[in-house]
Design brief:
The complex is a heterodimer of chains A (272) and B (101). With 272 residues, chain A is mainly alpha-helical. Chain A has helices at residues 2-27, 54-68, 79-82, 89-97, 129-135, 147-150, 154-163, 210-225, 229-262, and strands spanning 100-103, 112-115, 179-180, 188-189. In chain A, strands 1-2 form a two-stranded antiparallel ribbon. In chain A, strands 3-4 form a two-stranded antiparallel sheet. The relative contact order of chain A is 0.14. By secondary structure, chain B is mostly helical. Chain B has helices at 5-35, 41-49, 54-68, 78-99. In chain B, helix 2 (41-49) packs across helix 4 (78-99) and helix 3 (54-68) packs antiparallel against helix 4 (78-99). The longest helix of chain B is centred in the N-terminal third of the chain and has 31 residues, at 5-35. The radius of gyration of chain B is 29 Å and the shape is elongated. In chain B, 18% of the residues are buried. Mean pLDDT of chain B is 78; it is low at 24-35. The chains are: A mainly alpha (272), B mainly alpha (101). Chains A and B meet through helix 8 of A and helix 2, helix 3 and helix 4 of B. Chain A: This is Cytochrome c domain-containing protein. Chain A: It comes from Brassica napus (Rape). Chain A: It is found in: Mitochondrion inner membrane.
Chain lengths: 272, 101
Amino acid sequence: MWTLVLLVAFALLGAGVTGLLSFSTVASADEAEHGLACPDYPWPHDGILSSYDHASIRRGHQVYQQVCASCHSMSLISYRDLVGVAYTEEEAKAMAAEIEVVDGPNDEGEMFTRPGKLSDRLPQPYANESAARFANGGAYPPDLSLITKARHNGQNYVFALLTGYRDPPAGISIREGLHYNPYFPGGAIAMPKMLNDEAVEYEDGVPATEAQMGKDVVSFLSWAAEPEMEERKLMGFKWIFLLSLALLQAAYYRRLKWSVLKSRKLVLDVVN
Amino acid sequence: MRFGEIELQHLGFIHHLAISQRRLRSFLSNFTMADVEVVDPKKCLEESCKPKCVKPLLEYQACVKRVQGDESGHKHCTGQYFDYWQCVDKCVGPKLFAELK
């Protein structure tokens, strides 16, 4: 029995040691593997009761449409989602009508194309992932509908990534077809630098610097990933307030009912 | 109160002046907006944050010198590069959005 215990102890010790060893090899791996940690930017919608900057969302959608949509899909967003957030209904309808959508089958059994409606999703640049990879040297430009939730510290990461294209450090060479970006895990990203000063002309006249476009497009992507944020914050504030009132009431009621027991006195006395 | 001819002429003159002032201002703003070079505020702030991060920058430059002579291709300065840019990012981060709309 004791030999069994000893065997189990040794097995566990061995497992522990190999575990430690594997940790040490991970720690000595290149820090580029995790990418440079991105700073925290003070987003206007970060506060506990802050809403999105809707003018920024509108500009960000323009940046997405003109710069990003040629490679990145946003297949979970429909034109109708933009109404009341970034565009009026007429503007959104006009934007939707600019695209061609395959619909059908019609009465003759054939598929046909028609101009887009509000209920249509934003158009996809490629038919499928294979086509996307083929057109981009094997790399798949991810769908951006949820990207700020799909990456750790998403908002800050995407902004840092888009505005963080720099020359690689000494000793690092990136192969042809990839580009250096310190924030990208591994450092070598397939996407080239897309945001350049004045690549887009904003209709509200805001100067379209790289940082401005980055901020606006990330505001748009944040909204796309979390459109319910404003309602959630309002609901949270309302319910935290009401529940704290309920807590005070419950505490008072509990103490009221227990006061009978808590204020009783027991007397130990002799029986004469 | 009845406006006399002279008062009406005065009002007309003032009205014209107001319109031409507005036109002049909008003309000037078009002119100046076209003239102004857009400068990326992030690059600007990174330059201004360089003095705060001199130590990691010098470390990086020292590393670059060490790596320059290397033939093996395994030496690189990612660590020092990251330290420098982390310092710059920490400095730029809180200030950048104040420069943007």
